Amino acid sequence: MVEERITRSSPLRSTLADLPGLPGCITPPRPAPPLAYITSTPPPEPTGNTISVNGFIRSVRKQKKHAFASIGDGSTLSPLQALLSPEQAEGLSTGIAVNIQGRHVACPPGKEQASELHALAVEILGDNDATNYPIQKKYQTTEFLRTLPHLRTRLPFNSLLLRLRSQVIAQLTTFFASRDFVQTHPPIITSNDCEGAGEVFTVTSSAGQAAPSDPDGEEAQQHFFRNPKYLTVSSQLHLEALAQSVGKVWTLSPTFRADRSHTPRHLSEFYMLEAELAFTSDVDSLMDVVEDMLKDLARGLVSSRTGKELLQARSSDWIQNEELGVLSAADLQARWDGLLASEWPRMKYTIAIAKLKEAVEIDGASFDVAPIFSSGLHAQHEHYLAKTFGNGGPVFVTDYPQELKAFYMPPSAEQEAVADGPTVACFDLLVPDVCELVGGSVREHRTSELLKAMEKHEQLNDVVRDGKGKDAVEDASLQWYVDLRRYGSVPHGGFGLGFDRLLLYLSGVTNIREVVTFPRWPGRCDC
Ligand SMILES: NC(=O)C[C@H](N)C(=O)O
After folding, report:
1. pTM for this one?
2. Following DSSP, what letter does each residue of 87-150 receive, concatenated?
3. Angle (deg, nearest 10), helices 305-315 and 329-340
4. Fewer CB within 10 Å, N side or C side of the chain?
5. Is 203 buried (19+), middle (13-18) or exposed (0-12) by CB count in 10 A?
6. Which is an annotated GO molecular function term of this record (predicted)?
C-alpha cells in the first residue's frame, strides 16, 4: 500500500453520491474509468478501484494500528468510512476538509457499512479549529443549533433537508411546465398589502430619500419611492395581471409577514408557491390542480433517494431532536401514502363546523376555542378535521364565511340558506399537524362587484366614489388592480401554498425554523 501525504492540490470533483454502493462525494482519479452512480436501484458493488474522495471528517477514531474516519460531503445521509494508517490520520479531527485517495472495497458481511475506503493518500484541504468547533457529534439542542445557521447545514440531516428543498423545486418546475403554466417573477417590493393578509414590513433606504427637489413636494421627498412601499405579503394580485396575459402562471417567491408570531408554523420570511389560472370560474378545478401537484410531488419523493434517506433518518438514531420530529419512519411513510390516497375529501365550511360541534357534543372532544361559524377554523380544528376525515391525507374545506375572507373572493356558486351569513368561493387545504397548507379562491372579476367588496372591507379604505357616478380608487396603489377588471376581465382563480410548510410536512420535521436555512422570526435574524 502506498502511503503518502499528498502535497500538491488535487482537483475537486463530484460528490459522495456518485460512488458505487455509497452515498457521497467521490470520483476516480483520471484516467480510471468513470464510476457508476448513486446508492439506489440497486447499488453497484464497490470495484476495488482507486478513487478520490472530497469531504469533511465527521468523526475520527484512532487506534494503535489503524484509524477510522467518517467522511461526509452533504450529498448523502450516511458517511463513507475510510481506513487510515496512524500516520495518515495524524492531524485529522472532526470538521477538517480532506481529499482521500484510496481503494473502494466491499466490507465483509456483518459490518454496519457495505463498503469502505482503504486510504492510499490523504490531503488536508481545509483545517478546522477543532477545540472551538461548535458542531459536535454529541446531542445538541435545536435551540443551540439555531444560533449557528451558517454551520448547522453541515449536519447530515440538515444537508438532507437542503436536498429535499431542491428536489421539490425541480419537480414543481417540471409539473407546471408539463401543464403549460408560465413561471413568473412578480415583484418583492409592492405598493399595497394585497389583502390585509398580515402585518407588512415597510421598505426604507439607507441612501436617504428620493430626489432632493421632488416637484411633488415634501411627502414624495421623504420616501425613496415617493410614498411608502412594502415587502410583499402575497404575489397574488400581480399574478392575476400576468394570468390575463398568458393564461396560467406560477411563482415561488419570498414572502414577508411582520406578525409577532412565534408558532412552529410561522416565519417572518418564507417562500410561497402561488399559481393563478385565467378562464376558470370554479373552486373544484383549482383544487384539482393542487391535488395533482401534491400527488405528483409525493410520487417523486417516494421513489427518490431523498425519500429513502428521509425514512432511513427516522429508522435510525440520526434524528435526536424533538423539533426535527418525533414521527417514526412508518408514520412518515403513512403521511406520503395519505397524499397518494385516491381522492381527498372536499367538505364545505358549514359542514366542517357542524362536524366539529358534533365532535364536542357527541364524542366529548374539547377545543380551546369553540367551533363557531363566525370565528373561523383555529389550528386545533384544522388538525382535528384533517386527522378525522382525511384518511391519513389532506382535506379540502371550501366556502368560508365572507366576513372572514379577503375582498377579492366572490360569493359561493351555490349560496346555501345559511342563517349565519354569506360564504365565498374559496378553499383551504388542511393536513394533520401542519394544518393549513394551501389557500385559494376564485377571484371577483366583475368591476362593480369588486369595488363594492373593496369598500366593504375596511382595511381597504382607499376606495372611494369620485362623486361623478364613476368608480375610482383614490389611492393609486390599487387602481391598477381595478383596471384589470375594466380591461377585458375574465373569470379566474388561484392559490398560494406555504412552501416551507410543505417541506415540514413532507420531511416530518416539527418546527419550520428547522427546514429553513436562515430562519427569521420576531427578534431573530441571525446572519
Ligand atoms: N395566492 C393566493 O391565493 C394566496 C393568498 N393571497 C394568501 O395570501 O393566502
Report:
1. 0.88
2. HHHTT--TT-EEEEEEEEEEPPTTSSSSEEEEEEEEEEEE---TTT----SS---HHHHHT-HH
3. 140
4. C
5. middle
6. asparagine-tRNA ligase activity
Residues 249-304: tens digit of each pLDDT: 999 999 999 999 899 999 999 999 999 999 999 999 999 999 999 999 999 999 99
290 lines ligand 1 (CB under 6 A): no
Atom of ligand 1 at shortest distance to CA of 441?
Answer: 3
pLDDT tens sequence across 102-141: 999 998 888 878 889 999 999 999 999 988 999 887 788 8
- Specify the pairing of strand 492-498 against strand 269-278: antiparallel
Q: Is pLDDT above 90 for 340?
A: yes
193 lines ligand 1 (CB under 6 A): no
Find out whether the beta carbon of 498 lies less than 6 Å from any atom of ligand 1. no
The pLDDT score that the predictor gives to residue 197 is 63
Q: What is the pLDDT of residue 456?
A: 83
Q: Give the three cell numbers for residue 82.
A: 475510510
> φ and ψ at 178, to 5 degrees?
-70, -15
ipTM: 0.98
Q: Which three three-digit cell numbers place residue 451? A: 369595488
Domains of the chain: 38-127 (2.40.50.140), 159-207+222-445+490-514 (3.30.930.10)
Would you state the cell numbers that stand for residue 104, as one nine-digit string? Answer: 473502494
The set of cell numbers assigned to 16 is: 459522495
